[in-house]
Amino acid sequence: MKIMPNRLDRGFYRYQREFEDKALEVLRSGWYVLGREVESFEEEFAAYTGARYCVGLASGLDALWLAFRVLGIGAGDEVIVQANTYIASVMGITINGATPVFVEPDAYYNMDTEKIEEKITERTKAILVVHLYGQASGMDRIVEICRRYHLRLVEDCAQSHGACFDGQMTGTFGDIGCFSFYPSKNLGAFGDGGGIVTNDEKIARDMRMYRNYGSEKRYYNKVVGANSRLDELQAGLLRVRLSHIQELEEERRRIAARYAGELDNPLLVLPEVREKATAVWHQYVIRCEARDELIRYLEERGIGTIIHYPIPPHLSEAYAYLGFREGDFPITEHYARTVLSIPMYSGMTQEEQTQVIEALNHFQG
Ligand SMILES: *Cc1c(COP(=O)(O)O)cnc(C)c1O
């Protein structure tokens, strides 16, 4: 039996009837961009996170770069971000002409809060915290640092829908929480989608303006905006998925619990969850010094895996202009050489889980 790292089809068939009904309803409505479905989704997603406002956008990357645009952060400004993130986090900063300042991650793959203050300069305007792999970062410390240094706080929640720190949902700690609804995310659409949450009415209003060519009133354009509108079909389908989110979270938690309880190969480092934090297991990421052998070994047994991420942003060709070299962020680079995401998805059967566990436990390096 072949096991893939993800099975988006299972996520669809699980609620097939509801998805199909909603899709037909939207197709037949005659209204396809920014309408009732988007408004309802925004209300429901805001309520789910506990934020006052949600604004639907076209992607997670748009959520990030528009967040910094709305906050007025651009050329000459610095934004602190963890070095081991997905490159989109960094692009959200640099699209605006601002400079990313990288911080090494901690043992939970999130920003090491002990290493933030040494990076703060008079140009620092914001911290972009990424709740990587679905686990909440150490928000008590980060919020305190933002207050003390008068920094804006933006959260990249593309992988953390539903993850909490001290009972509060990620995305609601700072000025703006940025979400992606890309199909493989924990709350995924059937195409691209994104959004932000905020408690600030002006930020919400500005974001609505920016997503629609900088216009609040038709053909009256206040700023140079973007075309970043969530469409009705995706919003409708997201509402279906959101209505089952508790069940979907539970399922991932159960798979993660099985992995944590049954994987016992000393060659593997399993993920741990920070005190006060919860994880929604967007990925289940293990570490292995013989990672590349492990990938081949699993492949031979029909088990697919993914590396999140093999090249850290500071070593990516796109950011050669920042002038970093190998060795500049040793923890990040070590993670890039050793991390491996094992299969974790909605609809993963008990047999599939068992097959993954047994294969991993028999790996001898
Ligand atoms: C997926 C992702 C993004 C980008 O979202 P898109 O919808 O693909 O643009 C940003 N940051 C992180 C951490 C992500 O995982």
Largest sheet: 7 strands, mixed
What is the succession of H and E elements?
HHHEHEHEEHEEEEEHEEHHEHHEH
Q: If strands are numbered along the chain, what order do they take across the biggest sheet?
A: 1-9-8-5-4-2-3
- Structural class call reads alpha/beta
Hetero groups:
pyridoxal-5'-phosphate
CATH class of the largest domain: Alpha Beta
How much helicity do the residues have?
A: 25-40%
Instruction: Supply the number of helical segments.
Output: 12
Strand content: 5-15%
> Would you identify the CATH H-level superfamily of the largest domain?
Type I PLP-dependent aspartate aminotransferase-like (Major domain)
CATH fold node name of the largest domain: Aspartate Aminotransferase, domain 2
Instruction: Examine the secondary-structure arrangement and name the CATH architecture of the largest domain.
Output: 3-Layer(aba) Sandwich
Counted up, domains total 2
Shape descriptor: globular
Please tell me how large the radius of gyration is. Answer: 20 Å
End-to-end distance, in Å? Answer: 23 Å
Strand segment count: 13
Overall mean pLDDT score? 98
Task: Point out poorly predicted stretches.
Answer: none
